[in-house]
Each structure stands twice: as C-alpha cells, then as structure tokens.
Amino acid sequence: MQSPLPEHAAVWFEIPVTDFSRAKSFYGVVTGNALTDEEGAPNPMANFAKAHDRSVAGHVYPGKPAPRGTGITIHLVVPDLDAALSRVWDNGGEVASPVLSLPDGRFAYCLDPDGNSFGLFTR
C-alpha cells in the first residue's frame, strides 16, 4: 500500500550562520521578510515570517555552515528578483549565477556572507 503524498515536499528549513545578528539583517534586507527571534526555543533562532501556520518556512541559527557553496540550496521567494539580487551584493553576499527562467518564474543562485548557498525566486 502506497502512502499518500505529503502536501509539501519540505516542511521546514534551517540555515546555520556564524554571525547571528548579521544573518538576520542580511536575509531580512535581501528578502524583504524581517526575521523574528523565537522566544523560548532551545537554541537562538530567528524565523522568516510566513502567511499562515501551514506555510513552509524556516529560520537562521548560530551553527556551522557547510564549506562555501557545498551545502543544500533553499530557494526564498522575493517580490522583485532584480532588486533582491542587488541587495545581496550590497549586504556582503554574492550572486553566483545569471537569472534563470522557468515556466513558473525566475531565479538565481546566491551565497550568503557565510558561503551558504541559497536561491532567490519570483513568479
């Protein structure tokens, strides 16, 4: 008997960072989605805002990133891809690819100040 497919292939993401304050600022400014400190969590973490309780989201936390550009890549939604890519450079990150087009939207690969790979996506 086959299990039913999950509503979402991913349910949560975590981005390890070496400088917690810098990461909260970087991701908040780049995505336009201010991160909020989680009260009462077992470890420091700052959550990306989400539309509702069933939305997929995640957080940054003090941890050890994978070596530069070698970890998994999470894609973050932004309203204006070109403006967000400019903010990556302006805030100590790096745009690592040209803008790529898909049937559902456009995206580019980036690196945060710790070398974590992430993508920015817009419809």
UniProtKB/TrEMBL annotation:
Taxonomic classification = Bacteria, Pseudomonadati, Pseudomonadota, Alphaproteobacteria, Hyphomicrobiales
What is the recorded name of this protein?
Answer: VOC family protein
Species for this entry: Mesorhizobium liriopis
Give the matching InterPro entries: Anthracycline_SecMetBiosynth (IPR052164), Glyas_Bleomycin-R_OHBP_Dase (IPR029068), Glyas_Fos-R_dOase_dom (IPR004360), VOC_core (IPR037523)
| Domain (VOC): residue spans on this chain | 9-123
**Gene3D superfamilies according to UniProt:** 2,3-Dihydroxybiphenyl 1,2-Dioxygenase, domain 1 (3.10.180.10)
Q: Which PROSITE patterns match?
A: VOC (PS51819)
Listed SUPFAM superfamilies: Glyoxalase/Bleomycin resistance protein/Dihydroxybiphenyl dioxygenase
